[in-house]
Amino acid sequence: MDTTAIRQKLHNYLEVADDKKVKAIYTMMEIEIEETGIEYTDELKTELDTRYADYKSGKAKMISAEESKKRIQKILTHKKR
Fold first, then answer.
1. Dihedral angle, C-alpha 42, 47, 53, 56, nearest 10 °
2. What single string gives the DSSP state of each residue in 6-66?
3. How many CB atoms lie within 10 A of CB 39?
4. 41-80 as b/e, with b when 16 or more CB fall inside 10 Å?
5. 52 with 59: CB under 8 angstroms?
6. How far apart are CA 63 and CA 42, in angstroms?
7. According to the model, what pLDDT value does residue 39 have?
8. What's the pLDDT score for residue 47?
């Protein structure tokens, strides 16, 4: 099983696991989780806020997940040639 599949199985499990099991898993990984926490720069936060505001106001053009997949597949297919 590849890492992506393992991640998905863990994610799915954590969604339905009882509280006791979730807390036990967290306790085992707590130090590593805390050490690898993502810290966003003020610049990135500002950029994300701007993009969100553009999305909410309709200023930003959005595409569906399906369209995004098509574009990615087209790029990947083109690079293989």
1. -120
2. HHHHHHHHHHHS-HHHHHHHHHHHHHHHHHT-----HHHHHHHHHHHHHHHHT-S----HH
3. 5
4. eeeeeeeeeeeeeeeeeeeeeeeeeeeeeeeeeeeeeeee
5. no
6. 27
7. 82
8. 95
Extract the tokens encoding 39: 């810290």
Cα 13 from Cα 7, distance rounded (Å): 10
Q: Tell me the pLDDT tens digit for each residue of 26-55.
A: 999 988 888 887 788 999 999 999 999 999
Q: How far apart are CA 56 and CA 49, in angstroms?
A: 10
Q: Which of 73, 75, 77, 54 is nearest to 65 (CA)?
A: 73
User: Distance between CA atoms of 60 and 50, rounded to whole angstroms?
Assistant: 10
